[in-house]
Design a protein that fits this description.
Layout: H1 5-21, E1 31-35, E2 41-43, E3 59-61, H2 79-88, E4 94-98, H3 101-108, H4 119-124, E5 130-131, H5 139-145, E6 154-157, E7 161-166, H6 169-192, H7 200-212, H8 218-223, H9 250-256, H10 292-310
Parallel strand pairs: 5-6
Antiparallel strand pairs: 1-2, 1-4, 2-3, 4-7, 6-7
This protein binds zinc ion.
Length: 311
């Protein structure tokens, strides 16, 4: 559907109001943009409360962020992040950046939202990886996002916030809302007990539906940097010391899903684990069998948690 610039301006004002009233930003935080059919972009200006904008506060820019009308305000200082998403994703026409408290809490704690815990989230949002910290308004921030943009519709940014994109403003905003809702549920699940991941077969079916519905291109599945897809080449590199390539005891895995006080026992055999979605092993009285790939994934996760504890 073709939208006029006027309609897009009005819609950005509406999305800004929702972002502010839902507490996803404070003061003049965050920014929103939408790409018009002619390739120009309407974006929020710098230093403005997203809940109190008028259509005339917004700025029309080209893809490089240059103002196309000199009388308009200056575009957001974080426009480069939007530009990078538009550059790498031709099908994307809207970007919403905010600091939603629950999602940003995960980003500050260095914990991605990348576990398959809710079917609707797998279906509509997909995995939300955590990108490394980059100084806002610099190329550092953009560079940290670039490798993730082709494969993900929402990202957490370490010690900063979140960004979501979509084919239009409603889709981008919905993903931000889903991200925040998911973060709340994931936090509550951690507080209540041990979050149970969806089985691998269920995740695979959901991803099939996601692809068929056009929510995700088939190319994106292999690039998902999360626990959804078992593709070693698509995962972030492991940081485990090779000398620790032994086994993980049961306490470590229990901690992975709860209070993050992980411990790795390099002498122990593999004890009953918390059965992540990818395990297809035989359960005995006290033992489970893991493939080398599964064991590496467990050790990597445990090591990450230990690093966070002592870091
Ligand atoms: Zn920000």
């Amino acid at each position: 559907m073709i939208h006029t610039e006027r309609e897009i301006r009005s819609h950005i004002v509406e999305i800004g109001r929702r972002v502010y009233e839902n507490g996803y930003v404070a003061a003049s935080d965050g920014n929103i943009s939408a790409r018009l059919d002619d390739g120009t972009i309407v974006t929020t200006p710098t230093m403005i409360c997203k809940g109190r904008m008028n259509e005339s506060d917004l700025v029309l820019v080209d893809l490089d962020g240059n103002k196309l009308r000199k009388e308009e305000r200056h575009p957001s200082s974080e426009f480069a992040m939007h530009r990078e998403i538009y550059r790498l994703r031709p099908e994307i026409h809207a970007v919403v950046h905010a600091h939603p408290p629950f999602g940003t809490g995960f980003a500050v704690a260095n914990v991605p939202l990348d576990k398959p815990l809710l079917s609707e989230v797998v279906l509509t949002l997909g995995c939300v990886p955590l990108t490394s910290y980059g100084t806002p308004s610099t190329n550092e921030l953009v560079d940290s996002l670039t490798p993730f943009i082709p494969y993900h519709d929402a990202l957490l940014m370490a010690n900063h916030g979140a960004v979501a994109c979509g084919a239009d403003l409603e889709a981008a905003y919905a993903r931000m809302e889903t991200l925040e809702h998911f973060a709340k549920i994931a936090l509550i699940a951690r507080l209540v007990g041990q979050p149970q991941e969806l089985p691998a077969e269920a995740v695979s079916k959901l991803l099939d539906v996601r692809e068929k519905a056009g929510y995700m291109s088939p190319d994106a599945r292999g690039g998902q940097m999360c626990g959804y897809v078992q593709n070693e080449t698509a995962r972030p590199p492991a940081t485990v010391n090779p000398s620790a390539s032994a086994n993980v005891n049961t306490n470590a895995m229990a901690s992975v899903n709860t209070n993050a006080t992980a411990s790795v026992n390099t002498n122990a055999t593999v004890s009953p684990c918390s059965c992540t979605a990818t395990h297809a092993h035989t359960h005995g009285e006290d033992m489970v069998t893991l493939t080398k790939q599964e064991l590496n994934a467990l050790i990597t996760e445990a090591a990450r948690l230990i690093a966070r504890e002592i870091g």
